[in-house]
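Readers outside the structure-tokenisation community will struggle with the description of the input data as it stands. I therefore recommend that a typical entry be quoted early in the introduction. An entry of this sort, consisting of the sequence and the corresponding backbone structure tokens, reads as follows:
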Amino acid sequence: MSDRFQVLSLDGGGIKGVFSAAVLAAIEEDLSVKITDHFDLIAGTSTGGVIALGLGLGLTPKEMVEFYVSRGPAILSNPCGMRSLLHWAYRKFPQRALMKALKDPKVFGDKKLGESIKRLVIPSYNLGEDDVYLFKTPHHERLKRDWKVPAWKVAIATSAAPTYFPSSRHIDHVRHIDGGVWANNPTMVGIVEAVSMLNISLDQIYVLSLGTSDEVIRRSSGLDSGGKLAWANDAVTLILRGQSLGAYKQASHLLGMNKVLRLDPKVPDGLFALDKPNTKYELLAKAAHESRISMPAIETGFMQHKCRLYTPLYGTDETIGDRGRESNHGN
């Protein structure tokens, strides 16, 4: 036990979540550990939110890798490239394949967010109110609502990427879209949650942040004075990358460079994409390479800490509220 408070942060990135899940699986296998034993809070956006939910509900990283490898092609099916043509005027993929995969009893089934064994923070965005939206486990007295929401609904709400999937209307009729529009790298979300809701001091916080690959792109000089057409292809990737870099650098300044470890390998432009499941084996290979290099730093930097018990303040068992009010630290 220690006074440390460790945050696991998982980026968005569609099928590229294979990389994050595979890195976590490698850690468990190499070090004979269980990831959830070593992190007090998990923050995950979009595909990272799906992985966070899986870990919280008892799935192993290896099982999450299998989820992406086996279910990804059906979720992101693009027969004869027809969906790519439709994408110019309509969302690229329907929700039904993703919904079916998430509702499988071997995945989330009918489990609720409040059944998570870890504190979770999952970013989304409320399109109707034009405001940020966070799903949270009941780790604070104020958090009385989200624990009742089925995990599959949270997963769809955080991963409804604009133009790729339709908005999610499964929770209180709210128009949820992908949390990546404001927190694709949720490192700062996790830090703020620890400080503001759990009363953790900054000197206690350590973060392991997993990206899903960072494309090396040469930005055209035409963007310098370009209009909408010039920016059409670059705007989204630039915004996502800018937010991600900003979150990492803010966290590093706030906590200290030695307290934030980020794995987000640079790759050639076009090597991976969030909607190309045929790159899954290349992503697995990249995860094997990066985890091999980073394993010593991960072991010494994070695996010495063992979390104390997290007990939800609210849940389906009404006695949880009485026996679980230990402290806001939850440790």
Residues 62 and 113 are 21 Å apart (CA to CA).
